[in-house]
Amino acid sequence: MAFLHAATGSHSGPKSELKSKSWTPYLLLAPGLIWLVTFFIFPILSLASTSTMVRPEGAQIGTYVQELRFANYIDAFQANQEQYIRSFVYAAIATLLALAIAYPLAYMIAFKSGKYRNILLVMVVAPFFTSFLLRTVAWTQILGDEGPIVSTLKLLPFVGDSMRLTSTPFAVVSGLTYNFLPFMTLPLYASLERIDPRTLEAAGDLYANGFTTFRKVTVPLSMPGVVAGTLLTFIPAAGDYVNAAILGSPSTKMIGNVIESRFFAVVDYPTAAALSFTLMATILILVTLYIRRSGTDELV
Amino acid sequence: MKKDLLPRPSLSHRTGRWFSRNLIRIYAVLAFIYLFIPVAYTFAFSFNDAGKSNLVWKGFTLDNWKNPCGAPQVCTAVANSLEIGIISTVLATILGTMIAFAIGRHKFRGRKTTNLLIFLPMATPEVVLGASLLAMFLNLRINPGFWTIVIAHVMFCISFVVVTVKARIASLDPKLEQAAMDLYANERETFRYVTLPLVMPGIAGAALLAFSLSFDDFIITNFNSGIVSTFPKFVYVSAARGIPAQANVIGSAMFFIALIIVIVGQVVSRQRKRG
């Protein structure tokens, strides 16, 4: 095991040098990486190829030929601009809400939970042992017209009888916030837990009050967790279509819903592929910008 | 700063402390209630005497729990999900653990590319992963079904296994392996009797994670399943018409089984630390 010698620096000898050129790492990597190349990279290329295909006149539904028609992208975007923008807006709101809910929760578990810490961590993840579709369906019951929230709100004088929560943007954004909450909480917890309590004490010794300490010490030190958490929430939320399908209405459709229906209901593979590709590219660009930006913010 | 030099700040200090001591606990309790409400709903409605459409409460019954296969499609779907979950977990855990060992313990060329290849599937929205795999299968004239689901699940689970196992390998103390070598264990023995047992909790955690990702996946599965039904797909398809209460039984049972596994795992690891 070459790594032992490499890691510790001791026991180094001719044998370890010989070993470090060995085939072992490549043999370990090969099966998994081949799987990823075959079933991730190759499909992405296949998707790119499908996105510029055209259905020949008079051909059967679902038959497409390659004509390198890049205008497919413009057509697809123009036809679905609304859903496209809505996806990013909903995902952004859901991410901010999740951050607002998860930060104090993670803070509490990291600093104030004492011996209950592990139990509370399990409790953060535990709801997600129940199928997420069942939980989303449960939200339709909770937010439904006969559900506890609407019935309670209707008791208020200024709430009309026609009030609804399901099939609204509110329901979709709530669903997104709820479903991706642990992806926000766990990285936040991980970065908060790593903070040395002595740095907080030092801030107090230097006459910072609780809030100043929080703002100038805790928040900057927890930034890696904030970045990881927002990414882990935003990316799946932007591509999600389950919440919009179950909790929303036709007027809350997101880009995922369009891609799904283009594939299955309309059998328009090129448009679906062009939309998927645009979604992926936009997310990758946003993620790169965000990581760069937050990287510099940390230094300030 | 000036304010803090006055004799009064202790008050703001105290209110600040009270704030962080109690308000945050109240907040956390509310957050946990929010997290558990849908679970409680799912559990409660597993006792609903509702027949086929489980949307409105109609009365308490234990029938659904006594006969979880009362709605036959539910059981077929769960059986498929379990089978797919187990096969995908085994494959993804083996492939991912091998990659994790290569990254954590070996020098090789192309490390950056490897890391990127591991990271990208996690940074790609599921709908894109699902759509791209289906586009490939369609282009290759492969009909989606059971094995295309397995292929897809292994693909997106590998990255999570690598990340989990890699973290465990990175946290190991190299001195332990060094000690084994000093005691004349050869490389194979050191790996078999020292490294592997130490990494095992990480591998077990990764396998659990992979299984729960696979069992609960809907979006990628929906694209690549053809006519094969899985549990999440069944729930999605029947959501509009109303889901049989047996689905809630399965969902609640999964919740308690997973909870027991996690708690037992915690207890075992704590005892080991003590022993």
Structure description:
The complex is a heterodimer of chains A (300) and B (275). Chain A is an all-alpha fold and 300 residues long. Chain A has 2 domains: 1-51, no CATH class; 72-299, MetI-like (MetI-like fold, Orthogonal Bundle). Chain A is built from 15 helices and 2 strands. Chain A has helices spanning 2-8, 14-20, 24-51, 71-111, 117-125, 132-143, 148-154, 169-179, 181-193, 197-205, 210-221, 223-239, 242-247, 255-264, 269-299; strands at residues 53-54, 65-66. In chain A, helix 1 (2-8) packs across helix 2 (14-20), helix 4 packs across helix 9 and helix 9 (181-193) packs antiparallel against helix 12 (223-239). Mean pLDDT of chain A is 84; it is low at 1-19 and 296-300. Chain B has 275 residues and is mostly helical. Chain B has a domain at 72-243: MetI-like fold, CATH 1.10.3720.10. Chain B is 78% helix and 0% strand. In chain B, helix 4 (72-105) runs parallel beside helix 7 (146-170), helix 7 (146-170) crosses helix 9 (187-216) and helix 8 packs antiparallel against helix 9 (187-216). The model of chain B has no long low-confidence stretch (mean pLDDT 87). At the A-B interface, helix 1, helix 3, helix 4, helix 5 and helix 6 of A face helix 2, helix 4, helix 5, helix 6 and helix 7 of B.
What is the element layout, followed by pairings?
The complex is a heterodimer of chains A (300) and B (275).
Chain A: H1 2-8, H2 14-20, H3 24-51, E1 53-54, E2 65-66, H4 71-111, H5 117-125, H6 132-143, H7 148-154, H8 169-179, H9 181-193, H10 197-205, H11 210-221, H12 223-239, H13 242-247, H14 255-264, H15 269-299
Antiparallel strand pairs in A: 1-2
Chain B: H1 2-5, H2 9-44, H3 63-66, H4 72-105, H5 111-123, H6 126-139, H7 146-170, H8 174-182, H9 187-216, H10 219-224, H11 231-239, H12 245-274
